[in-house]
Q: What sequence folds into this?
């Protein structure tokens, strides 16, 4: 019978909250914020968030990290992700032929990793979206 190594289940917190405001007909303003936070679940040299994980290559881009998105020298399990966004939807046309809307959104994402060999990498990104939609 083969030996199976299993780490304990992950314990995590997930929270998301938002608000929508309708200052006048055909305009929706919104804002949302959320967090995801994980606890380490490891034993020995196995498991999630293990301090023995190799994070030494997380700050050095390589051909492998660009082509596959991963590298053996950057485990960097997620410890916490924070997200906040604001945006709007404006009806440009609303009638018997459907609805035509325009929207924009600005989002900020911050990622923190568990500490391992080479430190605890983190990164952030700001993203802007625009959308033009037609609903039948």
A:
């Amino acid at each position: 019978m083969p030996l199976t190594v299993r780490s304990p289940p992950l314990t995590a917190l997930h929270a998301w909250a938002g608000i929508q405001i309708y200052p006048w007909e055909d305009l929706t303003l919104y804002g949302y914020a959320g967090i995801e936070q994980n606890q380490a679940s490891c034993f020995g040299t196995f498991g999630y968030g293990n301090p023995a994980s190799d994070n030494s290559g997380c700050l050095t881009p390589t051909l492998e990290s660009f082509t596959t998105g991963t590298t053996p020298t950057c485990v960097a399990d997620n410890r916490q992700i924070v997200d906040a966004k604001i945006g709007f939807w404006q009806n440009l046309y609303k009638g018997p032929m459907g609805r035509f809307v325009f929207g924009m959104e600005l989002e900020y994402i911050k990622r923190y990793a568990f500490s391992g060999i080479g430190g605890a990498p983190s990164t952030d990104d700001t993203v802007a979206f625009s959308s033009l939609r037609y609903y039948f």
User: Anything to note?
Assistant: The chain has one domain: 12-135. The mean pLDDT is 90. Strands lie at 12-21, 27-38, 41-43, 46-48, 78-95, 98-113, 122-135. Helices lie at 63-68.
